[in-house]
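Dock adenosine monophosphate; give full complex structure.
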Amino acid sequence: MIIGIDLGTTNSLVAIWRDGKASIIPNALGQHLTPSCVGMDDDGTVLIGEAARARLQTHPHMTAALFKRYMGSERKTQLGKQRFRPEELSSMVLRSLKEDAEAFLGHKVEEAIITVPAYFSDAQRKATRVAGQLAGLKVERLLNEPTAAALAYGIQDTQRETKFLVFDLGGGTFDVSILELFEGVMEVRASAGDNFLGGEDFVSAMVDAFQTRSGMAKAMDKQELTGSQRQRLRDEAERAKRVLSDAPKATMTFMYNGAEFTWELDEEVLANLCEPLMQRLRAPVERALRDATIKASELESVVLAGGATRMPLVRKLVSRMFGRFPQIHLDPDEAIALGAAVQAGLKMRDVALDEVVMTDVAPYSLGIGIARQVGPNDYEGGHFMPIIERNSTVPVSRVENITTIRDFQKELTVKVYQGEARLVSDNIYLGTLHFPIASKKAGEISADVRFTYDVSGVLEAEITVLPSQEKHKLVMSENAGVMTPQEIEQRLAELAELKIHPRDRIENRTLVAQADRLYEQLLGQEREYLAQYVAAFQSVLDKQDPIATRRARESLIQAMQQLDGGSFL
Ligand code: AMP
């Protein structure tokens, strides 16, 4: 049996092909989505999924998320006393999905098809295969995410040749791909996107608007919200956003300093509020069409993926842009995993769809660290200046000019990074060029920084100091981020030593993590009230009495619902 896995940035899913159709397998909590989060519990056991996600705020240094962004690099994450590579963290999510599939099927599972973004480079694909291996899975194949979405919609059954677009808007990333199916082979003709655009941005816009429109901003009198107040308000906006996907109106309510603030909004209000985001959704679509030299009218269909495409606003935008309704009869969160299961089904019958893998784009932005002016004579270091932007077709060569910012500075230091974050501390460090320069007043020395990135993933940074034309060069290889077979063997043994929280008890552990998160957001009597229920639940858990546990569990859930309306779940 081959399982299909969507290893996502925020959530992952596992699906199977059975009785002639693809279906999602629920996790130990009965949910389809498993957050791609890994954490270390206070006693050193590893928590995966919702239990880890609930601890992101309460235990940020013991929890890892978004590690898919660093696949194929050496960037390590510290959890407690240990450090993990991105493929190791991914392997724990995969292991947990594998166990869910085994519990559901009642037998061992050893093979999987795992989906990856179309723009993943060779190094990122290798890292994904290693993650599978570390999870005890033989990776039958990697499948491009847009191809998977298309398979879920049965495009290969209905048509022999077709061109279509996949519009994938998740929580924090937006990917557009144009695909062509030709003689049974799927080819990604172009891919574009925005690594920092997703459902979360709509929530941020609602949070900001709520404060002015509900009158809360006046009451705040320029005071900042605390971290937990901000989180509660975000949770409330998320709830309202989802209500608006099914109903014409939604009301947001928030208690601040003992007073209640409310704001009623409808789709029109949301549309006005989110117009800048809608503009940002249009740009990558236009870029992809241009890159593929295809007109919107030549596309035969538009496929939606990612939870945020449930928003009617987004669906309307897509319909307007393409002059037709998108395919929506599947749950957009599940389309990619279902497609992976369809491919698994085809593979088991030896008729898997072939793909041309596109590795001719730069998978991440490449740039340097710079100081930005924040006042008349005030500079702040640590900012990222991209030189080659993600998704540029390779080979590519781009140049940017930089100048000195300090009087009589004797040296120039240029640090090279890859990634999409605004601050270099959140990107991956690749190397440094450091050399002496003539001592002149600020701004009098400038230098051209040229980046050249080739098909095999080698980046060359060349700096030409003007006007002397003196050159300095640094060459970096992407394959530095790929583990060797010996390293894999060694890490397999080390990972086997880790204690993973047992699957059959994760439900209770998750509830405690969620209660801890809610506790941080509450104050005074409400806190006290919740603390009593948590303490009661924990003392029952220690006695290991199943009936008493179920009762205490239900009481705790009820108490949490009373306090929070259930948005903690
Ligand atoms: P994904 O990363 O694909 O799981 O997408 C998660 C995003 O989808 C989050 O930003 C959610 O807020 C959003 N989302 C999920 N369900 C809905 C819904 N019913 N209406 C609007 N947005 C949703």
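Observed: Residues 86-105 form the longest helix (20 residues).
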